[in-house]
Amino acid sequence: MKRLFIGIPVQSANAANLAETWRNDRELNDNRFSWTNPENWHITLFFLGDTAVSEIDLLWRLIDASFGETRAFNTELNGVGVFPDTGNPKVLWIGLKDIQHLLPAREKLGELLMQNGFAFDNKPLKPHLTLGRIKSLQNRQVFEELLKDYGEFLFDNVTIDQIVLYESILTQQGPVYKPLFVKQLIWE
User: 55: domain CATH number?
Assistant: First the structure.
């Protein structure tokens, strides 16, 4: 069995530099965060969890069939927010402005996954990059200032040009995401 998910890698030096500044901010880190390594930033399309190795080839074919005609595009990393809400924040994230181009292919992939017996959480997609998980807020004021100051901030323009089947390997140092299959999107 392998712990799998299907996602979109997103890289941004600008956002990574700002996240590193926050990681090193003493006042902000009076709060307890588990920061995400920018190399692991991605948009999760579907989390599949423990999946038989024998199913990987089928997953490749389903991803290829679903995203075969999907075009690569550029979009914006825009604003920070939290899940589930500001009253009880657990995840700090950066949003993506527009990935509507991908929604028909994602819906098709979801249907194919269900038809082939894969179990997954089919909740609506909220495109974001997880900056960190919030363990506790000791200095709520500094955290709320960050949300206010960067709520509409344009971090960067990024390219969306791949769909990846990842294996998530849990380690003491945090998760390692190993690409098993990469579907390149079409450039015009």
Answer: 3.90.1140.10
Q: Between the CA of residue 61 and those of 27, 68, 148, what are the distances in Å?
A: 48, 10, 43
Measured in whole angstroms, the distance separating CA 46 from the mean position of its chain's CA atoms is 10
pTM of the entire predicted model? 0.93
Length of the chain, in residues: 188
Spell out the per-residue pLDDT of the chain, length 188, in tens: 999 999 999 999 999 999 999 999 988 877 788 999 999 999 999 999 999 999 999 999 999 999 999 999 999 999 999 999 988 999 999 999 989 989 999 999 999 999 999 998 888 899 999 999 999 888 889 999 999 999 999 999 999 999 999 999 999 888 999 999 999 999 97
Q: How many domains does the chain have?
A: 1
- Is the distance from CB of 80 to CB of 95 less than 8 angstroms? yes
Active-site annotation holds for 128: yes
Whole domain around residue 100: which residue ranges?
2-184
Q: Annotated catalytic residue: which of 2, 42, 106, 183?
A: 42
Q: Which of 128, 130, 158, 185 is catalytic?
A: 128
